[in-house]
Amino acid sequence: MTPDALRDRIRDTALALGFDAFGVTQARLGQEARARLADFLAAGHHGEMGWLAQRTDQRGDPRALWPDARSVIAVGLSYAPGEDPRHIQQRRDRGGISVYARNRDYHDVMKGMLKHLAQAVVKLGKTSGVAGTPEVKVFVDTAPVMEKPLAALAQLGWQGKHTNLVSRDHGSWLLLGEIYTTLALPQSDPRAGACGSCTACLAACPTDAFPAPYRLDATRCISYLTIEHAGPIPVEFRKPIGNRIYGCDDCLAVCPWNRFASLGRHAKLQARADLAAPALAELAGLDDAGFRALFSGSPIKRIGRDRFVRNVAIAIGNSGDRSLAPVAGRLSGDPDPVLAEAAAWACAQLSRPV
Fold first, then answer.
1. Residue 130: its pLDDT value, please?
2. Within this chain, do residues 22 and 134 fall inside the same structural domain, yes or no?
3. What is the structure's pLDDT at 129?
4. Which domain, by its residues, includes 125?
């Protein structure tokens, strides 16, 4: 089997397993990717995500993470929604949850699929005539791996001005995973595509989290603030957050390339009915056991009840719905001081004259 034929067999297997995008690149990154990471960290734009500043040598060079790696197989899983996720922002008594988090944790979904593909890579490699037994390592946002630059090199798309991957076929709605392998596979053929003069994603950001095109200040990003940030949300960002209680899709949703994206076809990534537009009043009443039960198997579970309900309290304060004032009042006495402060802020917002 020729190297090209082997790569194509692996691609066909990946698509048969349910992946929506596939590509291969060499196990190396260029200086540009490393420089962008260094600039991001030097500016402090990673905030409390300290792990990004660790093992930067391995993050910037796949072979520093695994010296035997020769190729990187990059795959994408579409989670494109059936409607514009920003519509929820008009329903102020409801909470907006980022599209990727409305059902099962994609890390678990993709890792299971990747393990099956990795087994096939080894089997196909053995039958291809290469010397020795091929080795593989699977990654889904769980190691110092620069997923988006590698996916771009593997021709899955390009990093847009919002710093996320943009695909000609799937817009801004691709979840990424990688297989590092000792197999020397041919790189995928180049594909055209670019943002051009479009700045829709930059203009859409409610908190001005993009200091320049292709640069993100995560400390201003609503996804960071509602998920990664553990302390009080800075007051300057509370109103712009609106009713977003876990993540934000605005910069993704406005991408013009989304017009080519078909509805994501993976059942475990389709929105659960109870998470498509959950009532803030019900979410505010969650105790720890109720939170764990509601979000079992969901990526939301990892931030814990207190941080999540803190976000709910901010959304209640932005709702303009005075009937939610008693709900905020009850939360203002919560044992968690960060949550209690957010609830007190919500009470103050709801008591203001209309």
1. 74
2. yes
3. 76
4. 3-81+103-181
pLDDT at 140: 95
Beta carbons within 8 Å of 294's beta carbon, 6+ residues apart: 274, 286
**Count of Cβ atoms closer than 10 Å to residue 73 Cβ:** 28
Q: Are residues 177 and 208 in the same domain?
A: no
Unique residue bearing structure tokens 């605005």: 250
To the question of pTM greater than 0.85 for the whole model, the response is: yes
- Enumerate the H helices of the chain as residue ranges: 3-17, 31-42, 56-59, 62-65, 106-127, 147-153, 200-204, 222-223, 235-241, 250-253, 273-276, 280-284, 288-294, 304-319, 325-331, 337-350
Number of domains composing the chain:
2
Task: Using the 3D structure, point to which of 181, 208, 223 is the last residue of a domain.
Answer: 181
For residue 1, the model assigns a pLDDT of 84
Domain final residue, candidates 117, 149, 181:
181
Q: Are residues 140 and 264 in the same domain?
A: no
345 and 299 in one domain?
yes
- Kindly list the distances between the CA atom of residue 142 and the CA atoms of 51, 156, 277, 285, 311, in Å, as whole numbers in the listed order: 11, 20, 29, 32, 25
Report residues of the chain scoring pLDDT below 50: none
The answer to whether residue 128 sits within a structural domain is: yes
Q: What is the DSSP string of 307-324?
A: HHHHHHHHHHHHH--GGG
Are 170 and 247 within one domain? Answer: no
- Selecting among 4, 20, 108, 141, the annotated active-site residue is 141
The predicted pLDDT at position 354 comes to: 66
141 assigned to active site? yes
